[in-house]
User: What shape does this take?
Amino acid sequence: MKRLIEKMGNVLSRLSNHDALIFLFFLGVAGSFWLSQTLNETLELEVRVPLRLDSVPENVMITTEPPKEIVAVVRDRGTTLVRYWQRRELKPVVLNFADYDNGSVAGRIQIPQSTILHAVQETLDGTSHVQSLQPDTIDFYYNRGLRYKLPVRVLGNITTTPQGYLLRVDTHPDSVEVYAPTAVLDTMQAAYTKAVSMMDLSSTVTAKAQLVTIKGVKYEPQEVDVTAYVDYYTEKMVEVPIIGLNFPADKALRTFPAKAKVTFRIGSARFNLIGPESFVLATTYEELLQNTSSKYHLHLKSLPPGVSNVRIQPQDVDYLIENVASD
Assistant: This one.
C-alpha cells in the first residue's frame, strides 16, 4: 500500500492540474465500483456479543463468572456486515440464573453451545449465519454461603541486598474467606498468592498481590498486601567468660585471659537482645585431660539464632588446672 501511494504521488506530480483532476475522478469511480462489488459478495466478520447473567438471588454468590462477551464469526453480504461493524457491539445475550438453578448449595452450571448459538443468532439479521463461537463452552460456578476462612501463604521470590536480610513476610489480611463447593474446600489448606517478585530490597516494601485463581473458588478479598520486612546487619562484640564443666570438686580451671572477645554479625532488630550470656565458651575436664597442648583452642558450644560470622579473640588460650583446697 505504501509503494502504491508513492507511485500514485509520482504520477500526480507529473500531471497538470486538469489531468490530475481527471485521474482522481476516474480513480474514485473505479474505487466505488470495486467497493460496491465487494460489499455485494458474501463475507465473514468477527463480532463481539455481550453476555450478561441476570436474576441472581441475594443469597447466591457467583464464584466464577461467565465470560463478559462472546466472539462470533458471522457470514453474510458485505453490506450487512458493515452495519454490524459500525455498531461495534451487538444486542447482549442475557442468561437468567433461575433457568439453570437446581437449588444446590454450590455447583457448576454449563450452558449448551446450541443455546448460546441460538441466542446469538437471534441478535442478527435473518440472512446472517454464525460460523463459530469463542469460547465454545459457557459455564459459571455459584455458592450459597458455603465457605471456610483460610490463611494466606505467599508464593514468589523475595531477596535483599548483601547488606540486609529478610526479617519476615506478612500479609494483610492474613486470612481470607474462601467460597467453594465442599469437595474443593476440603482439599484447601491455604489461599496462595500469585508469584510475588521483590528483588534486591534494601528497605521494607509493601506490594499488592492477587490470589491464585481456581475455577469455582472465590476469595473475599481477592487481593492482599504483602509486606517484606527488611533489616540490616551490624557488628557487635561482647566479652564472654571461659568456664570449665564437669570438674571434680577439688579441681578448678584457670585460663589466661579469663574472658575472650566474641565478635559477630547480627540484625539491628536483635542487636540489644544478644549479650555475653547468649554465648557459652566452655571446656570439659575430660576434654582437657586428652589435650596434648599447653593451649586450649576455644570454640562456641552454642550459637544464638540470627548470629553469623562469629570470630573469637584470642582463639587459643593458656590454661592450668588448679587444685582447690577442701574445707
Observations:
- Residues 29-37 have pLDDT under 50 and may be disordered.
- Helices lie at 2-14, 17-39, 78-87, 113-122, 182-185, 285-289.
